[in-house]
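Renewal narrative, Specific Aim 1. Our central claim is that a sequence can be written position by position from structural information alone. The example that follows is taken directly from our test logs and has not been curated for this report. It begins with the structure tokens describing the chain, in the order in which they were read.
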């Protein structure tokens, strides 16, 4: 079965219970190192930070761990993911620092120039309309506000790519299916990564959406990339 991007919210609802466990298992916990490195790119402590596609809030929580925000608003399409995130926030007693809202990043409820910075971790490749989503994030950022994106990308070394593809296209979907009991969700993951723009192509998307000073650096042989840009 094909999953199209209008079903993303319900797809994440259906895997929300196992999302964190599988994320850490399938990446051997390296996902947390990637998040740490991404948030280190925020140049200094900010006022209000928007974490788009916040899911179970790991990136939002990392922003606070590194003391890079006074407060955070996390938005996500999926009620199930937000519920899991809220449990974590309650457990860590971060209710006065992180507020969650169920929203679609293509039409945010916030006024123009509201946030001091914005972040997205493993979310942009799920946007239904990437250009529109990026433009909307740009709209709610203050001029000079930093934007950090962490996303899967493509390994360039052909030998590593060969082994990575076996893992990513075969082993990972099998483990994902067994644990989540969801037939398609973990087939959707490699599909979205294989189809998604990365590197210079994504930089062009950022510029088109109104960002400037856009740059990127790859991590772990290019498995993921951190992008940084600033609203003009
Ligand atoms: C792979 S998860 C990433 C969650 C979290 N940021 C992390 O680092 O683990 C992707 C999230 O993007 C959300 N998402 C996808 N499209 C969205 C949209 N248009 N607006 C808001 N959230 C969206 C999904 O519901 C899901 O929770």
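The sequence written for that structure reads:
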């Amino acid at each position: 079965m094909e999953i199209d991007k209008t079903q993303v919210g319900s797809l994440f609802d259906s895997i929300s219970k196992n999302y964190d466990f599988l994320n850490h298992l399938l990446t051997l916990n390296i996902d947390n190192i990637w998040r740490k490195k991404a948030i280190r790119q925020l140049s200094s402590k900010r006022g209000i930070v928007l974490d788009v596609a916040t899911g179970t809030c790991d990136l939002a929580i990392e922003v606070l761990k590194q003391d890079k925000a006074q407060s955070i608003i996390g938005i996500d399409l999926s009620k199930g993911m937000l519920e899991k995130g809220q449990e974590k926030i309650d457990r860590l007693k971060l209710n006065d620092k992180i507020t969650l809202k169920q929203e679609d990043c293509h039409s945010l409820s916030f006024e123009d120039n509201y946030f001091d910075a914005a972040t997205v971790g493993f979310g942009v490749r799920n946007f239904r309309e990437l250009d529109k989503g990026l433009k909307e994030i740009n709209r709610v950022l203050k001029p000079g506000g930093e934007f950090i994106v962490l996303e899967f990308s493509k390994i360039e070394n052909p030998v590593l790519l060969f082994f990575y593809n076996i893992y990513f296209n075969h082993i990972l979907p099998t483990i994902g299916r067994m644990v989540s009991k969801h037939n398609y969700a973990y087939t959707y993951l490699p599909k979205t990564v294989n189809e998604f723009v990365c590197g210079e192509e994504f930089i062009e998307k950022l510029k088109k959406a109104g960002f400037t000073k856009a740059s990127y650096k790859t991590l772990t042989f290019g498995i993921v990339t951190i992008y940084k840009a600033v609203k003009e």
